[in-house]
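Support reply, case 0932

Customer input (verbatim):
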Amino acid sequence: MDINVFRGLMSAVLLLAFIGVIVWAYSKNQKKSFDEAANLPFADDATDAKPNQDASSSLENKKHV
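Our regenerated output:
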């Protein structure tokens, strides 16, 4: 087996893997999980804003006392 045959086979395997990833990413079965993952940065903004401010302000008050 020649190195060029190996390179050709590897190119074909990698092309098929790339096409497989594209088909998987755009399949309708993955839409729900991708939508949930896309909204993760916005999930904790409202709930975490007040406790973090209270905790930081209480720490600042303790430093100045």
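We compared this against your earlier run and they match. Two observations from our side: The CA atoms of residues 36 and 42 lie 10 Å apart. The mean pLDDT is 81. Please reopen the case if you see a mismatch on your end.
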